[in-house]
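Input/output pair, single chain:
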Amino acid sequence: MTGGAAAPPLRVVGVSKSYEVGDSLARVIRDLTLQLDSGEIVSIVGPSGCGKSTLLNVVSGLLPPTSGEVFWHGRKLAGVPANAGYMLQKDLLLPWRTALGNVVLGLEIKGADRTDAQDRAGAMLDRLGLHGFADAYPGTLSGGMRQRVALARTLVTDPEVLLLDEPFASLDFQSKLLIENDTAALVRGERRSVLLITHDVEEAVSMSDRVLVLSQRPTYVIRTYVIDLPGSRTDMMEARKSHGFQDYVRSIWNDLQAPKR
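Output:
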């Protein structure tokens, strides 16, 4: 970066990803470029099966790109990046551990002091509306509560960047709105950066500063929307009712339904 400016947390430059399938080559991502700035929430939407999750696996270091480069804080990605949290649609909670035990797991792996780790985990559960449920086991919790535990587990290690792969897709509408509110409030209040994969266009528009629309396979960015809505951007129902919201939603849906380019 020039002029002494800090490099963005994440930059993807001309990335392509292909797989060998028998004697042929399956192209999933084609020459895709994107950037995630500090404190920004960016959503990625695209047709089903276009390669959104593959892209997230590439930027997180779980899959190598076939070509192109991924940079974290200006440095070429080598392995799984430090200070990034990854959250999936499935909560993947350990059923034999309590809510507190699941949240504290990442801190344990990092070698944190046990008492400090439990204090931090308990505080994060409280912030996400789970006060009094630290000793509850996953099997006794609702789907929304389980996702809150999974989010607390992701946030408690203090990641600067969150990579979210359709984390709210399995929730009912009310639970989804509530956890979206909590997520937006936490990440915006603490200036974290978020790259969110979602198939829910309304979720993308209500939560994000920018929405990237992907093409069918081999996928690339066909349009970028800068979302300019009034309000604090931490109340998802308020965002959905705001002037201009439905215009963004309709335009993005039109992009998604357009013929393959």
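Residues 93-159 form one domain. The radius of gyration is 19 Å.
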